[in-house]
Amino acid sequence: MDFGLSGKRAMVAAGSAGIGLAVAKELTAEGCQVSICGRSQERLDSALVELGSGAVGFVADVSTADGVNEWFNQSVESLGGVDILVTNTGGPPAGPWTEMTDEQWQSGFDSTLMNLVRMVRLASPLMVEQGWGRIVHITSLVAKEPVRLLPISATLRSGIMALTKLQAKELAAQGVTVNGILPGHTKTDRQMHLAEVIAARDGVTVEEALASRGAEVPVGRLAEASEIAAAVCFLCSARASYLTGESILVDGGLVSGI
Description:
Number of helices: 8
Order of helices and strands: EHEHEHEHEHEHHHE
CATH architecture of the largest domain: 3-Layer(aba) Sandwich
Distance between the termini: 30 Å
Number of strands: 7
Largest sheet: 7 strands, parallel
Structural class: alpha/beta
CATH topology of the largest domain: Rossmann fold
Radius of gyration: 18 Å
């Protein structure tokens, strides 16, 4: 299937590892020029080796306004514009809501929600001007099924579903689609961290915690980052031109709600 992405210019936040890197790989394989960001130069350098000559990378902390602005300006200067924006960050602190401090809530708000607002505010006018654009927010299944371990993430990502609808309605007539992908349990550094938290809480090994996480999924395993990236890539494609305002679970059937 031709996704119609050859020559498109994409920005993928937190693209030096995990799901972000997998998305960047999918888009470069489809012929996109890609700009990624990350907080570690070492990780960025390693990612760029994997991505090849069609990618550029910049050190940036997108939980801050300055970080978002710098990465956006560097990307536009390098790529000549932006057609695709994939928002993505690490998750907020984990633990019972009763133990979360005001500082942790504020940090989660900046890193999980405000970075998304700032990125779309910068990139969407360029997409509107050219009459074509794709915006995909990578969030989490906890937007639809909150879990006790992730109260900040669940609260903010549920709000992002509403924001996705609002952004989609605003931009649809200008040829710009806005959708969300809600990954399930995926083999990433974040999943390893959560397994460590669960292992400490339940008195089991990290390996046992990971195995338990996989066993609770109907398909019987954790997702590969590439499986999440494939769904993101479709939403970025020309084929998905009539699909907007949706928040799509890619969770192996884990969430039971309709």
